[in-house]
Each structure stands twice: as structure tokens, then as C-alpha cells.
Design goal:
Strand order of the largest sheet: 3-2-1-4-5
CATH architecture of the largest domain: 2-Layer Sandwich
Protein name: Transposase InsO and inactivated derivatives
InterPro entries: HTH-like_dom, Integrase_cat-core, RNaseH-like_sf, RNaseH_sf, Transpos_IS3, Transposase_IS3/IS150/IS904
Radius of gyration: 21 Å
Helix content: 25-40%
GO molecular function: nucleic acid binding
Order of helices and strands: HHHEEEHEHHEHHEEH
Function: Involved in the transposition of the insertion sequence.
Largest sheet: 5 strands, mixed
Organism: Gordonia westfalica
Structural class: alpha/beta
CATH topology of the largest domain: Nucleotidyltransferase, domain 5
CATH superfamily of the largest domain: Ribonuclease H-like superfamily/Ribonuclease H
């Protein structure tokens, strides 16, 4: 049986290795995944005594600029039903912004609704069409490289001008994807993408472990942090909506064999898509500080609590 002192060391390791994001529920789930049997109340007690806690989200504001109401718009093919039967059936896209010492920095993300993975992203100092288009190209290039057909894919976004630009819609048409947009000014019509933006702001941008001590200096620092965060989000983060599992594990069983990529059509490769994601920072992987004191065992909860 693992004692409190050893268990607290494991808790600190899990918490640090996951960007300091996890609260007691996810730390408990990760410990169980590692084969460490422990009650959740024990994890809660030790984390509270050690000052460890998870990240909480704040409400985010809308970022994209909409066109006039008189402009013809594609239909909303999603109607707030953010579900998909397979990968590459429905993608959702949105933009968000980050304040830095050098000015505003903007980030574009595209998520696959089935796997919930981020399939494309881009960071820039402008909100021009290229920001959103590069994120789209990353997603399409990666799918093509893996030999996956995206014909019939529904691409859903809000009515931001970046997503309604001619070059963007033409790129979707080249991929045989179908455009879908929500109604003007209604965040619920793109709720999944906006929920990710909120999570990204909390777990990456405002996270004291990720954020430089003096604040974000500029686009370079933000881009490195986003690359690290997306790598962790897709490959290691536990997600409550799929039973504290990892998104990648829901995607791999249905993934097309990479050998099929030899027959895949040539896709435009965005200038940043071939860049490997940066490895986790060494400061997040260091050994935990030895516990100075161990709190008393937790009390057994009564049936009414």
C-alpha cells in the first residue's frame, strides 16, 4: 500500500507533468491509469494540504468580425448538434486573441468533432484570411498525408469574414468539403469551438506554468506555447466527456493506415505544418519537491454527502 508521503510525490508529478491543469478528479483518474489505487478523497486531501489545484475557466468574448446581415450566407448544417459518427465528418473552427507586450496576437483552431482533437492551428499578429486559411491547410495536409478522404466533410464556423473570404471557401471546395455557418451573433451556434477557446485561454495563456514570468512578450513565445499545449491536449490530456480518456485513443482505431498516403492527392502544405511540435519543457518534467509534511488521513464520507 502506498503511503501518504509517496502518494503526494506521485500527485505532484502528475500535476506538474500536465501543465498544472489537473484538479483532484483528473489527478485521481491519471493515478488509476498508472496503476496506483487510491481513493479520490485522499487525493483531494493531499492536494488541498499541498496547495495544488486545477485551472478554472473564464468567460471569453467573441473575436471574429461578422459581415452585414444582408450578405448571403451558407446554411447552418449543424444546428447545435455537435456530434459525428466518424473522424473527418465535421470540423468546427474559430479564432481567439492573446494580449502580449508587443500587441495583440491571434490564434485560429480547427477541431474534429468525432475525436475532439485539434487538427489545425495557426498563430499570427493579424486576423487576416491567411490566419484561418493556414489552420485549415494544416488540417487538410495532415489528413491527405495519412491517406484520409475528407470529401463530404462539413466545416462549421461563425460568420467571421475570415471564414467567408473567397480564398477560404475556394479551399474548402477544392477539398470537396461543405460549408456551414451559424447565425449572426449567437455563440451557441459554434459552442464547441468557443468552448475550446475558453479552455485554451485557461490552460495555456493564463496558466502560470505556461506563461512567461513577465507576461507574453510576442508572437514567438505564444506560438511555442500553443505548439506545446496542442501536443499535450491531443496526446496526453484526460477528458471528462469521454470518461477521463485521451482523445487520441478515440481516433486511432478508425484511423486510415499511413501506407495509404502513397495514393493520397497532393495537398498544399502550410509553411508551419511540417514543423515538429516542440517537446514538453524540462521545467514541467522535473522531480517533485519532497513533501515537507503529510496531512492526516481523510475521514470516511457519510452516505448523505
Amino acid at each position: 500500500m502506498v503511503g501518504d508521503r509517496e502518494l503526494l510525490g506521485e500527485i505532484r508529478t502528475v500535476h506538474a507533468d500536465n501543465l498544472g491543469v489537473y484538479g483532484a478528479r483528473k489527478v485521481h483518474a491519471e493515478l488509476r491509469r498508472k496503476g496506483i489505487g487510491v481513493a479520490r478523497c485522499t487525493v483531494e486531501r493531499l492536494m488541498k494540504a499541498d496547495g495544488l489545484q486545477g485551472i478554472t475557466r473564464l468567460k471569453t468574448r467573441k473575436t471574429t468580425h461578422s459581415e452585414g446581415a444582408e450578405t448571403p450566407q451558407p446554411a447552418d448544417r449543424v444546428e447545435r448538434q455537435f456530434t459525428a459518427a466518424a473522424p473527418n465528418a465535421l470540423w468546427v473552427a474559430d479564432l481567439t486573441y492573446i494580449r502580449t507586450h508587443s500587441g495583440w496576437v491571434y490564434a485560429a483552431f480547427i477541431l474534429d468533432v468525432f475525436s475532439r482533437m485539434v487538427v489545425g492551428w495557426r498563430v499570427s499578429t493579424t486576423m487576416h484570411t491567411d490566419l484561418a486559411l493556414d489552420a485549415l491547410d494544416m488540417g487538410l495536409w495532415a489528413r491527405s498525408r495519412a491517406g484520409q478522404d475528407v470529401a463530404g466533410l462539413i466545416h462549421h464556423s461563425d460568420r467571421g469574414v475570415q471564414y467567408r473570404a473567397i480564398r477560404y471557401t475556394e479551399r474548402l471546395a477544392e477539398a470537396d468539403a461543405v460549408t456551414s455557418v451559424g447565425s449572426k451573433g449567437d455563440s451557441y451556434d459554434n459552442a464547441m469551438a468557443e468552448a475550446f477557446n475558453s479552455l485554451f485561454k485557461a490552460e495555456c495563456i493564463r496558466n502560470p506554468i505556461m506563461r512567461p514570468r513577465g507576461g507574453w512578450g510576442g508572437v514567438g513565445e505564444v506560438e511555442i506555447a500553443v505548439a506545446e499545449y496542442i501536443d499535450w491536449f491531443n496526446h496526453r490530456r484526460l477528458h471528462g466527456e469521454i470518461g477521463q480518456a485521451i482523445y487520441l485513443m478515440t481516433y486511432l482505431p478508425l484511423r486510415v493506415s499511413p501506407s495509404a498516403s502513397r495514393h493520397a492527392p497532393t495537398a498544399h502544405v502550410p509553411r508551419h505544418a511540417a514543423q515538429p511540435l516542440c517537446p514538453s519543457r524540462s521545467r514541467l518534467r522535473g522531480p517533485p519537491t519532497p513533501p515537507s509534511s503529510v496531512p492526516p488521513p481523510c475521514r470516511r464520507r457519510t452516505a448523505g454527502r
